[in-house]
Design goal:
heterodimer; A: FAD/NAD(P)-binding domain; D-Amino Acid Oxidase, Chain A, domain 2; 2 domains; 9 helices; globular; B: mainly alpha; two-stranded antiparallel ribbon; elongated
Protein backbone atom coordinates (compact mmCIF):
# COMPACT_ATOMS: atom_id res chain seq x y z
CA UNK A 1 0.00 0.00 0.00
CA UNK A 2 1.36 3.39 -1.02
CA UNK A 3 0.19 6.46 0.88
CA UNK A 4 -0.32 9.63 -1.16
CA UNK A 5 -1.76 13.04 -0.27
CA UNK A 6 -3.67 13.22 -3.55
CA UNK A 7 -4.46 10.65 -6.26
CA UNK A 8 -5.62 12.03 -9.61
CA UNK A 9 -7.35 9.71 -12.07
CA UNK A 10 -6.78 10.74 -15.68
CA UNK A 11 -3.68 12.23 -17.34
CA UNK A 12 -5.33 14.47 -19.87
CA UNK A 13 -4.61 18.19 -19.83
CA UNK A 14 -6.89 18.56 -16.78
CA UNK A 15 -5.28 15.89 -14.58
CA UNK A 16 -1.77 16.91 -15.62
CA UNK A 17 -2.45 20.57 -14.78
CA UNK A 18 -3.99 19.68 -11.39
CA UNK A 19 -0.88 17.65 -10.52
CA UNK A 20 1.39 20.46 -11.67
CA UNK A 21 -0.31 23.17 -9.62
CA UNK A 22 -0.64 20.94 -6.52
CA UNK A 23 3.13 20.58 -6.68
CA UNK A 24 3.48 24.38 -7.06
CA UNK A 25 1.34 24.85 -3.95
CA UNK A 26 3.58 22.51 -1.98
CA UNK A 27 1.69 19.19 -2.22
CA UNK A 28 4.36 16.77 -3.44
CA UNK A 29 2.92 13.34 -2.64
CA UNK A 30 0.73 13.19 -5.70
CA UNK A 31 0.14 10.30 -8.11
CA UNK A 32 -1.59 10.69 -11.47
CA UNK A 33 -3.01 7.39 -12.78
CA UNK A 34 -3.74 6.99 -16.48
CA UNK A 35 -5.19 3.85 -18.04
CA UNK A 36 -3.59 4.51 -21.44
CA UNK A 37 -0.92 7.13 -22.14
CA UNK A 38 -0.95 10.80 -21.15
CA UNK A 39 -3.17 12.76 -23.53
CA UNK A 40 -4.75 9.63 -25.04
CA UNK A 41 -8.32 10.83 -24.50
CA UNK A 42 -9.89 14.10 -25.54
CA UNK A 43 -6.69 16.15 -25.08
CA UNK A 44 -4.73 14.53 -27.89
CA UNK A 45 -7.74 14.66 -30.21
CA UNK A 46 -8.73 18.28 -29.69
CA UNK A 47 -8.70 21.22 -32.07
CA UNK A 48 -5.80 22.99 -30.25
CA UNK A 49 -7.63 26.32 -29.73
CA UNK A 50 -7.57 28.52 -26.61
CA UNK A 51 -10.02 31.43 -26.41
CA UNK A 52 -11.60 33.90 -24.03
CA UNK A 53 -14.38 34.77 -26.49
CA UNK A 54 -17.24 33.14 -24.57
CA UNK A 55 -20.71 34.42 -23.78
CA UNK A 56 -21.15 33.87 -20.02
CA UNK A 57 -19.19 35.86 -17.44
CA UNK A 58 -17.74 32.97 -15.36
CA UNK A 59 -16.32 31.21 -18.43
CA UNK A 60 -14.92 34.48 -19.82
CA UNK A 61 -13.24 35.20 -16.47
CA UNK A 62 -11.92 31.66 -16.21
CA UNK A 63 -10.50 31.84 -19.72
CA UNK A 64 -8.88 35.25 -19.17
CA UNK A 65 -7.07 33.64 -16.23
CA UNK A 66 -6.35 30.50 -18.25
CA UNK A 67 -4.73 32.46 -21.10
CA UNK A 68 -2.38 34.18 -18.62
CA UNK A 69 -1.49 30.79 -17.17
CA UNK A 70 -0.98 29.28 -20.64
CA UNK A 71 1.62 32.01 -21.21
CA UNK A 72 3.41 31.23 -17.93
CA UNK A 73 3.21 27.46 -18.47
CA UNK A 74 4.60 27.70 -21.99
CA UNK A 75 7.64 29.56 -20.65
CA UNK A 76 8.09 27.33 -17.58
CA UNK A 77 7.59 23.98 -19.33
CA UNK A 78 8.98 24.93 -22.75
CA UNK A 79 6.23 24.66 -25.37
CA UNK A 80 4.70 27.17 -27.76
CA UNK A 81 1.50 29.01 -26.83
CA UNK A 82 0.92 31.11 -29.91
CA UNK A 83 -1.42 34.06 -29.52
CA UNK A 84 -2.53 34.06 -33.12
CA UNK A 85 -6.10 35.09 -32.36
CA UNK A 86 -9.59 33.68 -32.82
CA UNK A 87 -11.57 34.95 -35.76
CA UNK A 88 -15.35 34.39 -35.79
CA UNK A 89 -16.74 34.92 -39.29
CA UNK A 90 -20.24 36.40 -39.40
CA UNK A 91 -22.35 35.79 -42.49
CA UNK A 92 -25.57 37.55 -41.42
CA UNK A 93 -26.63 40.88 -39.89
CA UNK A 94 -28.32 39.05 -37.01
CA UNK A 95 -25.23 37.12 -36.12
CA UNK A 96 -23.06 40.22 -36.33
CA UNK A 97 -25.44 42.10 -34.03
CA UNK A 98 -25.38 39.27 -31.50
CA UNK A 99 -21.60 39.24 -31.50
CA UNK A 100 -21.44 43.04 -31.09
CA UNK A 101 -23.29 42.45 -27.82
CA UNK A 102 -20.89 39.68 -26.84
CA UNK A 103 -17.95 41.93 -27.71
CA UNK A 104 -19.19 44.55 -25.24
CA UNK A 105 -19.52 41.97 -22.48
CA UNK A 106 -16.11 40.49 -23.31
CA UNK A 107 -14.46 43.96 -23.41
CA UNK A 108 -15.93 44.81 -20.00
CA UNK A 109 -14.18 41.71 -18.60
CA UNK A 110 -10.81 42.58 -20.13
CA UNK A 111 -11.02 40.57 -23.37
CA UNK A 112 -9.63 42.52 -26.35
CA UNK A 113 -12.30 41.48 -28.86
CA UNK A 114 -12.85 43.81 -31.83
CA UNK A 115 -15.35 43.77 -34.69
CA UNK A 116 -13.74 43.71 -38.14
CA UNK A 117 -14.98 44.67 -41.58
CA UNK A 118 -14.59 42.05 -44.33
CA UNK A 119 -11.60 43.94 -45.77
CA UNK A 120 -9.83 43.84 -42.41
CA UNK A 121 -10.51 40.11 -42.22
CA UNK A 122 -8.60 39.69 -45.47
CA UNK A 123 -5.61 41.43 -43.89
CA UNK A 124 -5.51 38.86 -41.10
CA UNK A 125 -5.88 35.87 -43.41
CA UNK A 126 -5.62 36.52 -47.12
CA UNK A 127 -6.85 33.07 -48.14
CA UNK A 128 -10.34 33.47 -46.65
CA UNK A 129 -13.33 33.87 -48.94
CA UNK A 130 -14.97 37.08 -47.75
CA UNK A 131 -17.59 37.36 -50.49
CA UNK A 132 -20.63 36.64 -48.25
CA UNK A 133 -19.16 38.11 -45.10
CA UNK A 134 -20.87 40.80 -42.99
CA UNK A 135 -18.00 41.12 -40.55
CA UNK A 136 -16.03 39.21 -37.94
CA UNK A 137 -15.16 39.15 -34.24
CA UNK A 138 -11.45 38.97 -33.54
CA UNK A 139 -9.50 38.66 -30.33
CA UNK A 140 -5.77 38.78 -31.10
CA UNK A 141 -4.95 37.54 -27.58
CA UNK A 142 -6.63 34.16 -28.10
CA UNK A 143 -4.41 31.42 -29.42
CA UNK A 144 -3.44 27.78 -29.71
CA UNK A 145 -0.95 25.25 -28.43
CA UNK A 146 -0.20 21.81 -29.83
CA UNK A 147 -1.58 19.20 -27.40
CA UNK A 148 1.18 16.69 -28.20
CA UNK A 149 3.84 19.30 -27.31
CA UNK A 150 1.97 20.31 -24.16
CA UNK A 151 1.52 16.74 -22.94
CA UNK A 152 5.17 15.90 -23.71
CA UNK A 153 6.28 18.98 -21.75
CA UNK A 154 4.21 17.96 -18.71
CA UNK A 155 5.48 14.39 -18.99
CA UNK A 156 9.10 15.52 -19.04
CA UNK A 157 8.45 17.86 -16.12
CA UNK A 158 7.01 15.03 -14.00
CA UNK A 159 10.08 12.89 -14.79
CA UNK A 160 12.10 15.28 -12.60
CA UNK A 161 9.36 16.11 -10.11
CA UNK A 162 8.07 14.40 -6.97
CA UNK A 163 4.67 14.10 -8.63
CA UNK A 164 4.34 10.60 -10.03
CA UNK A 165 2.72 10.06 -13.44
CA UNK A 166 1.79 6.40 -13.99
CA UNK A 167 0.70 5.62 -17.56
CA UNK A 168 -0.86 2.33 -18.66
CA UNK A 169 -2.18 1.92 -15.11
CA UNK A 170 -5.93 1.46 -14.99
CA UNK A 171 -7.88 2.10 -11.82
CA UNK A 172 -9.95 -1.04 -11.20
CA UNK A 173 -11.81 0.07 -8.09
CA UNK A 174 -11.96 2.37 -5.08
CA UNK A 175 -12.66 1.26 -1.51
CA UNK A 176 -14.29 3.86 0.69
CA UNK A 177 -13.48 3.67 4.37
CA UNK A 178 -16.74 4.50 6.13
CA UNK A 179 -15.28 5.65 9.45
CA UNK A 180 -12.51 7.89 8.21
CA UNK A 181 -11.78 9.74 5.02
CA UNK A 182 -9.42 7.19 3.54
CA UNK A 183 -9.88 5.94 0.03
CA UNK A 184 -8.05 2.90 -1.29
CA UNK A 185 -7.45 3.26 -5.04
CA UNK A 186 -6.80 -0.10 -6.69
CA UNK A 187 -4.76 -0.76 -9.82
CA UNK A 188 -3.69 -4.19 -11.11
CA UNK A 189 -0.26 -3.97 -9.45
CA UNK A 190 -0.49 -1.49 -6.60
CA UNK A 191 -2.92 0.08 -4.15
CA UNK A 192 -2.87 3.71 -3.10
CA UNK A 193 -4.25 5.11 0.17
CA UNK A 194 -5.32 8.74 -0.03
CA UNK A 195 -7.70 11.22 1.56
CA UNK A 196 -8.07 13.28 -1.61
CA UNK A 197 -9.16 11.65 -4.84
CA UNK A 198 -9.63 13.67 -8.04
CA UNK A 199 -11.76 12.37 -10.91
CA UNK A 200 -10.25 13.93 -14.04
CA UNK A 201 -11.23 11.07 -16.32
CA UNK A 202 -12.96 13.16 -19.00
CA UNK A 203 -15.46 11.08 -20.97
CA UNK A 204 -14.86 8.18 -18.56
CA UNK A 205 -15.64 10.25 -15.45
CA UNK A 206 -18.96 8.37 -14.87
CA UNK A 207 -17.03 5.06 -14.55
CA UNK A 208 -14.79 6.53 -11.86
CA UNK A 209 -17.85 8.17 -10.27
CA UNK A 210 -19.51 4.78 -9.86
CA UNK A 211 -16.45 3.55 -7.93
CA UNK A 212 -17.16 6.22 -5.31
CA UNK A 213 -20.93 5.70 -5.48
CA UNK A 214 -21.54 8.99 -7.24
CA UNK A 215 -23.57 9.49 -10.37
CA UNK A 216 -21.60 11.77 -12.71
CA UNK A 217 -23.86 13.46 -15.28
CA UNK A 218 -21.44 13.28 -18.22
CA UNK A 219 -21.99 11.67 -21.63
CA UNK A 220 -19.38 11.24 -24.38
CA UNK A 221 -20.38 12.73 -27.74
CA UNK A 222 -18.10 11.92 -30.66
CA UNK A 223 -16.55 14.87 -32.45
CA UNK A 224 -14.27 14.28 -35.39
CA UNK A 225 -11.45 16.32 -36.89
CA UNK A 226 -9.19 16.19 -39.94
CA UNK A 227 -5.69 17.36 -40.74
CA UNK A 228 -4.18 18.18 -44.12
CA UNK A 229 -0.64 17.71 -45.31
CA UNK A 230 1.74 20.40 -43.96
CA UNK A 231 1.45 23.72 -45.81
CA UNK A 232 3.69 26.77 -45.76
CA UNK A 233 3.91 28.28 -42.22
CA UNK A 234 1.65 31.31 -41.81
CA UNK A 235 -1.03 30.02 -44.20
CA UNK A 236 -3.87 30.28 -41.63
CA UNK A 237 -2.61 31.83 -38.38
CA UNK A 238 -5.82 32.51 -36.39
CA UNK A 239 -8.36 29.94 -35.35
CA UNK A 240 -11.11 30.63 -37.88
CA UNK A 241 -14.70 29.90 -36.83
CA UNK A 242 -17.73 29.91 -39.10
CA UNK A 243 -21.19 29.25 -37.67
CA UNK A 244 -22.62 29.39 -41.19
CA UNK A 245 -20.60 26.29 -42.10
CA UNK A 246 -21.88 23.85 -39.46
CA UNK A 247 -19.92 25.57 -36.66
CA UNK A 248 -16.68 24.88 -38.50
CA UNK A 249 -13.26 25.66 -37.08
CA UNK A 250 -9.88 25.53 -38.78
CA UNK A 251 -6.32 26.65 -38.14
CA UNK A 252 -2.77 25.69 -38.99
CA UNK A 253 -0.89 23.76 -36.32
CA UNK A 254 2.76 24.47 -35.65
CA UNK A 255 3.53 21.18 -37.38
CA UNK A 256 2.15 22.70 -40.59
CA UNK A 257 -1.12 20.87 -41.27
CA UNK A 258 -4.51 22.57 -41.33
CA UNK A 259 -6.65 21.06 -38.57
CA UNK A 260 -10.40 21.46 -38.81
CA UNK A 261 -13.77 20.19 -37.78
CA UNK A 262 -17.52 20.75 -37.97
CA UNK A 263 -20.30 20.06 -35.48
CA UNK A 264 -21.58 16.57 -34.79
CA UNK A 265 -25.14 16.00 -36.13
CA UNK A 266 -27.64 16.63 -33.34
CA UNK A 267 -29.23 13.22 -33.73
CA UNK A 268 -25.97 11.31 -33.16
CA UNK A 269 -26.30 9.63 -29.74
CA UNK A 270 -23.56 9.52 -27.11
CA UNK A 271 -20.96 6.82 -27.83
CA UNK A 272 -17.51 5.64 -26.85
CA UNK A 273 -16.86 4.83 -30.53
CA UNK A 274 -14.13 7.12 -31.88
CA UNK A 275 -14.06 5.73 -35.43
CA UNK A 276 -13.74 8.29 -38.18
CA UNK A 277 -16.51 8.41 -40.81
CA UNK A 278 -16.66 9.23 -44.52
CA UNK A 279 -19.74 11.34 -43.88
CA UNK A 280 -17.76 13.60 -41.60
CA UNK A 281 -14.87 13.84 -44.05
CA UNK A 282 -17.35 14.95 -46.66
CA UNK A 283 -19.01 17.60 -44.49
CA UNK A 284 -15.76 19.04 -43.13
CA UNK A 285 -14.20 19.09 -46.61
CA UNK A 286 -17.12 21.13 -47.95
CA UNK A 287 -16.77 23.56 -45.06
CA UNK A 288 -12.99 23.93 -45.44
CA UNK A 289 -13.22 24.45 -49.19
CA UNK A 290 -15.95 27.10 -48.77
CA UNK A 291 -14.18 29.06 -46.06
CA UNK A 292 -10.71 28.85 -47.65
CA UNK A 293 -11.19 27.96 -51.35
CA UNK A 294 -7.49 27.19 -51.86
CA UNK A 295 -7.73 24.34 -49.38
CA UNK A 296 -9.56 22.24 -51.96
CA UNK A 297 -6.13 21.47 -53.42
CA UNK A 298 -4.60 20.43 -50.10
CA UNK A 299 -4.58 16.73 -49.35
CA UNK A 300 -6.29 15.27 -46.31
CA UNK A 301 -3.88 13.11 -44.34
CA UNK A 302 -5.98 11.81 -41.48
CA UNK A 303 -9.27 12.07 -39.71
CA UNK A 304 -10.03 10.89 -36.20
CA UNK A 305 -12.66 10.96 -33.50
CA UNK A 306 -12.63 12.14 -29.91
CA UNK A 307 -15.22 13.16 -27.33
CA UNK A 308 -16.91 16.19 -26.02
CA UNK A 309 -17.66 15.01 -22.49
CA UNK A 310 -21.02 16.75 -22.23
CA UNK A 311 -22.96 17.72 -19.14
CA UNK A 312 -26.68 18.55 -19.36
CA UNK A 313 -25.94 22.31 -19.47
CA UNK A 314 -22.70 22.21 -21.46
CA UNK A 315 -20.62 23.49 -18.54
CA UNK A 316 -18.04 21.53 -16.53
CA UNK A 317 -18.30 19.94 -13.10
CA UNK A 318 -15.55 21.34 -10.86
CA UNK A 319 -15.26 20.88 -7.10
CA UNK A 320 -15.92 18.45 -4.27
CA UNK A 321 -18.56 15.91 -5.29
CA UNK A 322 -19.81 12.81 -3.50
CA UNK A 323 -17.99 11.44 -0.44
CA UNK A 324 -15.81 13.93 1.45
CA UNK A 325 -12.39 14.35 -0.17
CA UNK A 326 -13.64 13.25 -3.59
CA UNK A 327 -13.23 15.98 -6.19
CA UNK A 328 -14.18 16.13 -9.83
CA UNK A 329 -12.95 18.17 -12.79
CA UNK A 330 -14.74 16.73 -15.80
CA UNK A 331 -17.56 17.27 -18.28
CA UNK A 332 -15.86 20.18 -19.99
CA UNK A 333 -18.17 19.81 -22.98
CA UNK A 334 -15.46 20.60 -25.53
CA UNK A 335 -13.48 23.19 -23.54
CA UNK A 336 -11.35 21.11 -21.19
CA UNK A 337 -8.06 21.60 -22.97
CA UNK A 338 -8.27 25.37 -23.18
CA UNK A 339 -9.47 25.67 -19.56
CA UNK A 340 -6.94 23.21 -18.13
CA UNK A 341 -4.41 25.60 -16.55
CA UNK A 342 -7.14 27.57 -14.75
CA UNK A 343 -8.85 24.37 -13.65
CA UNK A 344 -5.51 22.95 -12.50
CA UNK A 345 -4.64 25.99 -10.40
CA UNK A 346 -8.20 26.57 -9.20
CA UNK A 347 -8.81 22.98 -8.11
CA UNK A 348 -5.35 22.80 -6.47
CA UNK A 349 -6.34 25.94 -4.52
CA UNK A 350 -9.71 24.43 -3.55
CA UNK A 351 -8.01 21.24 -2.33
CA UNK A 352 -5.30 22.99 -0.33
CA UNK A 353 -7.04 26.18 0.86
CA UNK A 354 -10.74 25.56 0.41
CA UNK A 355 -11.15 28.56 -1.89
CA UNK A 356 -10.02 29.91 -5.28
CA UNK A 357 -10.11 33.21 -7.12
CA UNK A 358 -11.77 31.48 -10.08
CA UNK A 359 -15.60 31.60 -10.24
CA UNK A 360 -15.96 27.87 -9.80
CA UNK A 361 -19.21 28.14 -7.83
CA UNK A 362 -20.75 28.43 -11.27
CA UNK A 363 -19.47 24.92 -12.06
CA UNK A 364 -20.65 23.40 -8.77
CA UNK A 365 -21.11 19.69 -9.62
CA UNK A 366 -24.24 19.43 -7.47
CA UNK A 367 -26.17 21.93 -9.60
CA UNK A 368 -27.35 19.34 -12.13
CA UNK A 369 -29.14 17.22 -9.55
CA UNK A 370 -30.65 20.38 -8.01
CA UNK A 371 -31.93 21.36 -11.46
CA UNK A 372 -29.98 24.62 -11.31
CA UNK A 373 -28.68 24.51 -14.90
CA UNK A 374 -26.48 27.25 -16.36
CA UNK A 375 -26.53 29.02 -19.68
CA UNK A 376 -24.72 26.76 -22.17
CA UNK A 377 -21.18 27.88 -22.97
CA UNK A 378 -20.63 29.18 -26.51
CA UNK A 379 -19.60 26.07 -28.42
CA UNK A 380 -17.93 25.29 -31.74
CA UNK A 381 -17.07 22.22 -33.87
CA UNK B 1 28.67 1.88 -41.56
CA UNK B 2 29.57 3.32 -38.16
CA UNK B 3 27.05 3.79 -35.38
CA UNK B 4 27.37 7.52 -35.72
CA UNK B 5 26.28 7.38 -39.36
CA UNK B 6 23.47 5.00 -38.55
CA UNK B 7 22.10 7.50 -36.10
CA UNK B 8 21.93 10.20 -38.77
CA UNK B 9 19.82 7.96 -41.00
CA UNK B 10 16.42 9.46 -41.74
CA UNK B 11 13.81 7.05 -40.41
CA UNK B 12 10.69 9.10 -41.22
CA UNK B 13 11.18 10.54 -44.70
CA UNK B 14 8.01 12.62 -44.68
CA UNK B 15 8.99 14.51 -41.53
CA UNK B 16 12.80 14.19 -41.70
CA UNK B 17 13.10 12.42 -38.37
CA UNK B 18 16.42 10.68 -37.71
CA UNK B 19 17.20 7.45 -35.92
CA UNK B 20 19.03 9.51 -33.27
CA UNK B 21 15.87 11.53 -32.52
CA UNK B 22 13.86 8.31 -32.12
CA UNK B 23 16.43 6.82 -29.74
CA UNK B 24 16.60 10.07 -27.76
CA UNK B 25 12.80 10.17 -27.34
CA UNK B 26 12.74 6.53 -26.16
CA UNK B 27 15.41 7.35 -23.58
CA UNK B 28 13.35 10.39 -22.50
CA UNK B 29 10.50 8.04 -21.58
CA UNK B 30 8.46 8.07 -24.79
CA UNK B 31 8.77 4.32 -25.04
CA UNK B 32 5.60 3.15 -26.79
CA UNK B 33 4.59 3.55 -30.44
CA UNK B 34 1.79 5.97 -29.55
CA UNK B 35 4.04 8.16 -27.40
CA UNK B 36 6.87 8.10 -29.97
CA UNK B 37 4.62 9.08 -32.85
CA UNK B 38 3.22 12.06 -30.95
CA UNK B 39 6.57 13.14 -29.52
CA UNK B 40 8.73 12.84 -32.65
CA UNK B 41 6.09 13.23 -35.45
CA UNK B 42 7.45 10.04 -37.05
CA UNK B 43 4.58 8.44 -38.92
CA UNK B 44 2.44 11.58 -39.14
CA UNK B 45 3.46 12.57 -42.67
CA UNK B 46 1.96 11.88 -46.08
CA UNK B 47 2.82 8.17 -46.10
CA UNK B 48 0.80 7.65 -42.93
CA UNK B 49 3.69 5.82 -41.30
CA UNK B 50 3.85 2.99 -43.82
CA UNK B 51 7.54 3.65 -44.49
CA UNK B 52 8.83 4.42 -41.05
CA UNK B 53 6.72 2.84 -38.33
CA UNK B 54 8.18 -0.68 -38.81
CA UNK B 55 11.65 0.89 -38.42
CA UNK B 56 10.51 2.80 -35.35
CA UNK B 57 9.29 -0.50 -33.90
CA UNK B 58 12.64 -2.13 -34.64
CA UNK B 59 14.46 0.71 -32.82
CA UNK B 60 12.02 0.40 -29.90
CA UNK B 61 12.85 -3.32 -29.67
CA UNK B 62 16.58 -2.51 -29.64
CA UNK B 63 16.24 0.14 -26.94
CA UNK B 64 13.84 -1.69 -24.62
CA UNK B 65 13.21 -5.25 -23.48
CA UNK B 66 10.08 -5.57 -25.59
CA UNK B 67 9.68 -8.07 -28.42
CA UNK B 68 8.24 -7.03 -31.81
CA UNK B 69 5.14 -9.13 -31.07
CA UNK B 70 4.42 -7.00 -28.01
CA UNK B 71 4.43 -3.77 -29.98
CA UNK B 72 1.38 -2.86 -32.05
CA UNK B 73 1.78 -0.34 -34.84
CA UNK B 74 -0.41 2.74 -34.37
CA UNK B 75 -3.89 2.80 -35.80
CA UNK B 76 -4.23 3.59 -39.49
CA UNK B 77 -6.71 6.40 -40.08
CA UNK B 78 -8.88 7.32 -43.02
CA UNK B 79 -8.14 8.30 -45.76
CA UNK B 80 -5.81 5.39 -46.48
CA UNK B 81 -3.87 7.54 -48.93
CA UNK B 82 -3.81 11.37 -48.88
CA UNK B 83 -6.78 12.69 -50.86
CA UNK B 84 -7.30 16.28 -52.08
CA UNK B 85 -10.03 18.07 -50.16
CA UNK B 86 -12.05 18.66 -53.33
CA UNK B 87 -12.44 14.88 -53.69
CA UNK B 88 -13.78 14.36 -50.18
CA UNK B 89 -15.89 17.51 -50.61
CA UNK B 90 -17.60 15.75 -53.52
CA UNK B 91 -16.58 18.29 -56.14
CA UNK B 92 -14.92 15.60 -58.23
CA UNK B 93 -17.14 12.80 -59.46
CA UNK B 94 -17.01 10.17 -62.15
CA UNK B 95 -13.67 9.08 -63.50
CA UNK B 96 -10.83 10.23 -61.30
CA UNK B 97 -7.73 11.37 -63.12
CA UNK B 98 -5.96 13.77 -60.88
CA UNK B 99 -2.18 14.09 -60.76
CA UNK B 100 -1.58 16.88 -58.27
Amino acid sequence: MIERDVVIIGAGSTGLAIGYYLENLGVKDVTILEKQYAGSGSTGRCGTGIRAQFSDEPTIKTMVGAEELWGELSRDLGFDFRRTGYLYLHHSEDELARYRELKRRQNSLGVTTEILQPGEVKEICEHLDISDLEGASYNPEDGKAHPFEVVAAFKQHFDKSPVELKEYTEVTGVELNRSGQEKIVKTPERKFKTEVLVNAAGGWAPEIGRMVETEVPVEPYRHQAVITEPLEPGTIEPMVISMAHEDAYLTQTERGGIIGGVATPEDEPPTYDTSETLGFENRVSRALASIVPGLKHARLLRSWGGYYAMTPDGNPLIGEFGPKGCYIAAGFSGHGYMMAPAVGLGLAELITRGRTKFPFNYYDPGRIERGDLREGALQMG
Amino acid sequence: MSNRNEEEVIVCRCRDITEREIRQAINDGFDTMELLKRKTKAGTGTCGGRTCLPHVRRILVEETDKTPEEIDLTRTRSPVIPVPVRFTAGEVTGEVNDND
